[in-house]
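chain below, 304 aa
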Amino acid sequence: MQKLLQYSTGISIILLIAVLFTTPVNGAKSWFELKLFTFQPSEVAKIFVILTLASLLCKIQEGGRNELNKPRKLLTCLAIVIVPTILIIMQPDYGTAMAFLVATFLMLFVAGLNKKYIIVTLIAIILLSPLVYKFILPDHAKSRIQVYLNPEIDARGSGYNIIQSKLAIGSGKLFGMGVLKGNQTQLGFLYPKTTDFIFSVISEEMGFIIAGSVIIIYVIMITKAVYIAKTAKDDLGTYIAMGIAGIFLFHMIENIGMTMGLLPITGVPLPFVSYGGSSLLTNFALLAILMNISGRRQRSIFAE
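prediction:
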């Protein structure tokens, strides 16, 4: 099983390298343009990276739960995630890269990561953030951060989408303007309305009640994923479920947050809602894995 996961992860990395040589779409080299459909390898990589990391964590902890905190073994775990994350950043797709990091952190945290590593990482992020912003981030990434802080500085350029998004959300009020009757969405002011800003469409056309219900459904789903992780039959199930919960959590917060102007804009889809075949299939696969972990737990309960 572990060898199969290693081969699958290796194939995912090869695909992430190959996609860098494709023609950019909207400024990113994230898709293989096939005749019948497009394929985004970073979405599929989520599954194999989570499964491989969870398997490795279990193997490391066969020698004791504190084995994870040995620098060499911790670096081995991080290497599984760092390689695909760097390749995804090169596309560039910062949103998906952040999803990988959030899932990894949650998996390591429940596996018993020492707090000193967390504290050191937080201090390093605080100290290095200004340097990364000034010397490493490309201009378009800096522009997104500046627009996030003040959209009006480029209202007809980089800040246009977020301004239109907030107008759409506000226009929906309590019950919405009606399906296919939204001003911002149907008159072409908001783009792309089927992927990044789909939550703005829901808010404008269906209103606060439906938009709020969507958020509640996501909270229930993520809470259920955490519960499955907590009650899983074994550590492997716990780590996988927490990784999946991290993926869904980041996608929900980032997508909804950016449409409201609370977070910088990234190309992160809203799970099960945004248009995109690769994303939808990956999310269904992650849900299927969660259900499998939960089913094994239930069988164990009835066996007793």
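Confidence is low (pLDDT under 50) at residues 300-304. The chain has one domain: 2-303.
thats it, cya
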